[in-house]
Write a structure and sequence with these properties.
This protein has one domain: Roll (SH3 type barrels), CATH 2.30.30. The chain contains four helices and five strands. The chain has a five-stranded antiparallel β-sheet. The protein is of the alpha+beta class and 159 residues long.
Length: 159
């Protein structure tokens, strides 16, 4: 950070029809050239129904069904994610959860059905494990995308 960089702590109230859309609107505002980096510490209300279901039923969520396109061993932060993950959880899923909760900037490598490879810097917004869908915010394009886990080749913490 240059000597002219300044760090601010703020609270922002966003209004929209859903928490996900409010978060998307906030991320659009924060991804300006003047903002060097940011960290959303609280207020992300995605995945609450899944958490509540797991608590009330006392059961583990459905295991991730890995496909050949999904790597069994993620490259970055494997030790940190595995130690915090439940023993039944796939390490790939544990990394997705960790990156989503921490707001870590990641590089996502995706192989689309027609053989097109995409590599994008993004933040993970929502992970729908039962449907095997990952919603991400592309920080360069300032757009939200949803991918099936079978399309994802790699998720790596952005350096």
């Amino acid at each position: 950070m240059s000597q002219k960089g300044r760090l601010f702590t703020v609270q922002i109230l966003m209004e929209d029809e859903s928490p996900g859309k409010a978060l998307e609107k906030l991320l659009h505002l924060l991804n300006s050239p003047d903002v060097l980096d940011y960290k959303v510490l609280q207020g992300i209300e995605l995945g609450l129904m899944i958490d509540q279901l797991v608590k009330t039923q006392g059961a583990a969520p459905a295991k991730h069904k890995a496909s050949p396109a999904v790597p069994a061993k993620p490259k970055a932060n494997n030790a940190t994610a595995s130690s915090a993950a439940a023993p039944y959880e796939n390490p790939f899923v544990a990394n997705i959860r960790q990156y989503q909760q921490s707001g870590t900037l990641v590089r996502l490598s995706v192989l689309k059905g027609s053989g097109i490879k995409i590599s994008m810097p993004c933040r993970l917004l929502n992970f729908d494990e039962p449907k095997s869908l990952l919603t991400v915010y592309h920080v360069d394009e300032k757009k939200v995308y949803t991918f099936s886990l079978t399309e994802i080749e790699e998720i790596e913490a952005h350096q």
